[in-house]
Amino acid sequence: MSDSPSEQARLSHNELRRQLIPNIGDAEGQGMIPFPYVMLLPLPGYTSPTANADECGFRISIKAGRRLKRDKLKAVAVSKGVFLGNGIAWGTGTSDDSKVVHNVLNDTRPSEVWYSVALRATSMTQERISAELFAPLDVTHAVWLSGIRMLHTSLYKVPHNAIMPFPGEDRFMAAMGGPTYTIPDFSMEARWAELMTLFEREMVLFSRAFRPPATNIIFALQAGLGWCKKPLSPEERDMTAAAGADKGASVIDPDAFTAYILHFAKSAEKICARHGVTFINVAAQPEFLVPEWLFADGGHLTDAGHAALARVIARHLK
Predict the structure, then answer these.
(1) Which of 71, 72, 16, 22 lies closest to 51 in space, CA to CA?
(2) Is the separation of the CB atoms in 131 and 180 below 8 Å?
(3) How open is the CA angle 182-183-186, to the nearest 5 degrees?
(4) CA distances in angstroms from 123 to 72, 84, 164, 166, 182, listed in the order given
(5) Does pLDDT of 276 surpass 70?
(6) Residues 109, 168 contacting (CB under 8 angstroms)
């Protein structure tokens, strides 16, 4: 990086992120379209120099140098894997389509074909519905990378049975000419109970959607720079400093949120075990405890971060 430390300190979080990762605007430039239940579907057929979407709006899938078509996957005879999630799984922060986790798995596991149905700016219910609508369900491996947005939304905004369970619902309702609503208040205890009820419901439906022949049904709690106890790379150190100095930064106490994440991870692991779902706390994996530059910002991953995530997932596949 050419800027001095004092010049870097004056950069906003977003300015520094774009300086460190010039191509991040390619992913963020993808528009959204209103779509029932999913609320906002990434723009289908989006193209850019480094980030491209398929006919459904998902990050393209590549195997042996060729793009995979969703409607052709049923004819594929080899083992199949599907990746669920939000913008982290979609690949915001990567330098090329081939560097996203599902395509890293396509490259490193020659006997398997992986397809992504990851959305952007979504919570868990939207992601699971997207999988039921668009994913091939006759898969050997189903991996869901998510959890933090649902945790954040449930604890600091509204529980799922309140008026706005989905990020983007307000924009969807506005596009459809629908009414606006007043959000009722809830105690933190009520929010936590609602959160765990929602998570268990999603694990039940996830495990049922990808029933046999699936042999690996995995929920991976996504890692974040704020609660991953890794040695920071110089880029991550600069990003953390810029985020802390940003006047538009979240007012949520990061230490309190980290404590919630740890408590959630313990409870989520027990729920997953009850329903035959393998639980992975990505932030606790050795691949995410190294000084390498893994985080493009607070949550999105660099190319190296997606490669590390692919190694974590591969280690848990039977």
Answers:
(1) 22
(2) no
(3) 145
(4) 28, 11, 11, 6, 20
(5) yes
(6) no
Whether the CB-CB separation of 231 and 291 falls below 8 Å is answered with: yes
Q: What are phi and psi of 27, to 5 degrees?
A: -70, -40
Cis bond before residue 44 (omega within 30° of 0): no
Q: Tell me, what CATH number does 148's domain have? A: 3.40.50.1110
Cα separations in angstroms, 202 against 134, 185, 228, 301: 17, 24, 25, 25
What are the C-alpha distances in Å from 289 to residues 156, 196, 293? 28, 28, 11
Report whether 23 contacts 50 (CB < 8 A): yes
pLDDT at 277 over 50: yes
> Two tokens at 135?
């994913």
Structure tokens at 255: 């230490």
How far, in Å, CA of 114 to CA of 61, rounded?
7
User: What is the radius of gyration, based on Cα positions, of the chain?
Assistant: 19
The pTM of this model reads 0.89
Fill in the DSSP letter of residue 178: P
Distance of alpha carbon 133 from its chain centroid, rounded?
18
pLDDT of residue 54: 96
Helices 148-156 + 254-274 axis angle, to 10: 120
Burial class (CB in 10 A: 0-12, 13-18, 19+), 213: exposed
The residue range of the domain holding 118 is 5-315
Q: Confirm if 292 and 302 have CB atoms less than 8 A apart.
A: no
How do residues 36-79 score in pLDDT, each as one tens digit? 888 889 999 999 999 999 999 999 999 999 999 888 887 777 89
Number of domains comprising the chain: 1
Distance (Å, whole) CA 173 – CA 26: 27
Quote the distance between the C-alpha of residue 258 and its chain's center.
18
pLDDT of 182 strictly over 70: no
Measured CA to CA, the distance from residue 78 to residue 64 in angstroms comes to: 14
- Give alpha helix (H) positions in 157-253: 169-175, 188-209, 234-245
Which of helix, strand or coil describes residue 184? coil
